[in-house]
Design a protein that fits this description.
Strand content: 25-35%
Largest sheet: 7 strands, mixed
Helix content: 40-55%
Number of domains: 2
Number of helices: 13
CATH superfamily of the largest domain: HAD superfamily/HAD-like
CATH class of the largest domain: Alpha Beta
Number of strands: 11
Oligomer: single chain
Distance between the termini: 28 Å
Strand order of the largest sheet: 8-7-6-5-9-10-11
Structural class: alpha/beta
Length: 298
C-alpha cells in the first residue's frame, strides 16, 4: 500500500543546492519523488515535489516526515507534507485567526494604548498566546482596562489596522477558485466587521465589546471566542458547506488556535509562538500570508 503526498518547501531564499538537499531528504525518508516545480515572486520561493510514500498517511507517518525535514536542516526553508487529496480537492475551507495572522496587530493592544495601558496589556496578551494563561480570563482582564473610553476610539483603532502582507491576495485566490474563506477571532466584531466585509469573507465571528451611553464598559457581551469556540466554528461552518474536515486548512499564531489547527486537515502556524509551531503541521516563518496558497495548492 502506498500514499500520495506533496512536499512543499518555501523560504525567502531557496537556492539550487537547497533544492538538491531537499530532494535528498525526501528520498532518504523513503519517498519516491515524481514531478517537481520551483516558483518565486521575488519575496519568497516555493519548491513542490509530488511524492509517493509507502504505507498510509497516518498522523505518525506524517510526523516522521516532518522530523526528517527538520533534521535536514536547510537554513531558512520550511517543508510541509500535504496529502495529495487535500491539494486536489475541488472545494476547500480556509479558516484563519485575525490578530497577528490576518492583520499585523493585536487590536486589544491598540485599544489599550488609548487607556495608557498598552505595555501592561501586551504582557498579558503574550502570556495568553504562549498558553500560560486561560484565554477567557485574560481577555476579561485586558478588556476591563478599557472601561470609560469613548466609543470613538474603536474607529481610531480600526484606521490603524493593517492587513498582513499577502492577506488580500490569499483570500482573493481562494475565492476565485471557488473555495470558502472564514476567520474566527478572539478580538472584536467592531473592528473585524468592516475588514471581513471588505475582503468578501464567507464566515466570520469575534467577541463583541459592550458600549453603553457612548463609552466602553470594559466588558464583552456573550460567550468569549476561545480555543474551543474556534474549533467549533471550523467544524460547523465546514459542515454547512459540505466540505469534509480533511479538506480544511487552518492558520493561526497563538495557543488559542491550537484546537483549530489540530482539527483541520492541515494546521499552519504563522509566525507563531514555539509551542504552536511544534504542534502544527506546517510553519510559515516569514511575513507573507499568501504562502498558505502554495501549501494548499490554490
Amino acid at each position: 500500500m502506498s500514499s500520495n503526498v506533496t512536499a512543499v518547501s518555501y523560504g525567502v531564499h531557496l537556492s539550487a543546492p537547497d533544492v538538491q538537499q531537499l530532494r535528498q531528504m525526501l528520498t532518504g525518508a523513503g519517498l519516491a519523488v515524481g514531478a517537481e516545480s520551483t516558483a518565486g515572486d521575488g519575496r519568497f520561493s516555493v519548491h513542490t515535489a509530488e511524492c509517493t510514500m509507502p504505507g498510509s498517511l497516518t498522523g505518525a507517518g506524517l510526523a516522521g516526515l516532518r522530523e526528517a525535514a527538520a533534521a535536514a536542516g536547510v537554513e531558512g526553508v520550511d517543508t510541509v507534507f500535504v496529502p495529495a487529496a487535500l491539494r486536489q480537492a475541488p472545494r476547500k475551507f480556509l479558516i484563519m485567526d485575525v490578530d497577528s495572522t490576518l492583520i499585523q496587530q493585536e487590536v486589544i493592544e491598540l485599544l489599550a494604548a488609548y487607556a495608557g495601558k498598552r505595555e501592561e496589556v501586551t504582557a498579558v496578551t503574550e502570556a495568553a498566546m504562549r498558553g500560560e494563561l486561560d484565554f477567557a480570563q485574560s481577555l476579561h482582564a485586558r478588556v476591563a482596562v478599557l472601561a470609560g473610553l469613548p466609543a470613538g476610539v474603536v474607529e481610531s483603532v480600526r484606521a490603524e489596522v493593517v492587513l498582513s502582507e499577502g492577506a488580500a491576495d490569499l483570500v482573493a485566490a481562494f475565492k476565485a477558485a471557488g473555495h470558502v474563506v472564514a476567520v474566527v477571532s478572539g478580538g472584536f466584531n467592531q473592528i473585524l466587521a468592516p475588514i471581513a466585509e471588505g475582503l468578501g469573507l464567507d464566515y466570520w465571528i469575534a467577541n463583541e465589546l459592550e458600549i453603553v451611553d457612548g463609552a466602553l464598559t470594559g466588558k464583552v457581551l456573550g460567550d468569549v471566542i476561545d480555543r474551543a469556540a474556534k474549533e467549533k466554528y471550523l467544524r460547523e461552518w465546514a459542515a454547512a458547506e459540505g466540505i469534509p474536515m480533511e479538506h480544511t486548512i487552518a492558520v493561526g499564531d497563538g495557543a488559542n488556535d491550537l484546537d483549530m489547527l489540530g482539527a483541520a486537515g492541515i494546521g499552519i502556524a504563522f509566525n507563531a509562538k514555539p509551542a504552536v509551531r511544534a504542534a502544527a503541521d506546517a510553519a510559515i516563518n516569514m511575513p507573507y500570508l499568501d504562502a498558505v496558497r502554495h501549501i494548499a495548492g490554490v
